């Protein structure tokens, strides 16, 4: 292929300068008005209070010490993963809405930086770093979900960090102790993702199984280190497995303990997140309809849940979805060994998500792990298309993406009439407390009121 057609006929140094500039601009936008926009939604209000309670009293809103899960504003649960980052941060820096949301922003930035550092090694063309960066920072879902705390949004970030850390651990020349430390960090972040969202309990085990078997097959990971890695994840996930047994099998609604950990009883189950397995037309019919509904949701760019998407813009601009498919077929010829391995892992993640596509009802929250995979694959697709169609196409795509991003951020996100700026009836403390009557102890509510004053 004629290299004169490449979009970037510039030095690698200049490409890296462009990428760094984009990351810096993205970081500034994520931090802009972080303490006031968006308005606090009921889920975030509840999570803030859980974190405050842990910081100032050592127990959650239901007076449980070291909870494996939070009961949540409606008794249907909120994961503890984000609290593991927010609690020590707020203990150190003090509480404000800005400080409460800041760890989510920092984790998002760390995630994309780690991915780019991994892809950068021995690149066939550095321009892939630009396209992956562009796809990531231009995705409305990334921008929206990084600026407020919905507990499920943390899970794909920690999973991505865990996977990338594992790739560094197996490829860098390290001593046994250094490799063990990196593998442990990776296992910790993978575990965070398992704790991070119940819907991930279907996808993550399948993905990890395929991912680790693949690494073993291509001789990137030895059997010894594989067993160590699986053992670490298994031990760290054990309290959650016990909680899942109480929640799913026993359907317990009573609080209990397991060792030093508290297991909350849930007054509501998560069954509404799944298809109707007793569908009159049969389970296969229900699965097919579910997949069709999911495709329509992503193509239309709206899931009817305003807090994680803007109608028409989607989790990624619908016009870019086709590039996620193109990304799957990016030839090895145009990728370094690391870039090809990373693409294969994204494809394995896509395959692993098929069971969830079939039985988990589609919206950008429920299918949150799929969002990250599609966004990164779209970066590969944009890169491959730039090689095939040349610099005129590349320039056109860059302009289109930047225009769409500008319109989305200025006219829909930060617009004074937008949902994110104005909020809704579900953003007030009164709504939160009314929804929790009988679920949060009266003394705790009074204490929270005093903290607010």
Per the principal axes of the C-alpha atoms, what is the gross shape?
A: globular
Distance between the termini: 66 Å
Q: How is the quaternary structure best described? A: single chain
Q: SSE string, helix = H, strand = E?
A: HHEEHHHHHHHHEEHHHHHHHHH
Secondary structure blueprint with pairings:
Elements: H1 12-31, H2 42-57, E1 69-70, E2 78-79, H3 81-93, H4 97-120, H5 127-138, H6 140-146, H7 154-171, H8 176-196, H9 200-217, H10 223-249, E3 256-258, E4 261-263, H11 283-300, H12 321-328, H13 337-352, H14 354-359, H15 368-389, H16 391-413, H17 419-422, H18 429-435, H19 442-452
Characterise this structure:
The structure is a single chain. This protein has one domain (3-278, 411-452). It is built from 19 helices and four strands. The protein has helices at residues 12-31, 42-57, 81-93, 97-120, 127-138, 140-146, 154-171, 176-196, 200-217, 223-249, 283-300, 321-328, 337-352, 354-359, 368-389, 391-413, 419-422, 429-435, 442-452; strands at residues 69-70, 78-79, 256-258, 261-263. The strands form two sheets. The protein has a two-stranded antiparallel ribbon. Helix 13 (337-352) packs across helix 15. The longest helix is centred in the middle third of the chain and has 27 residues, at 223-249. The model is unreliable at 1-8 and 433-438 (pLDDT under 50).
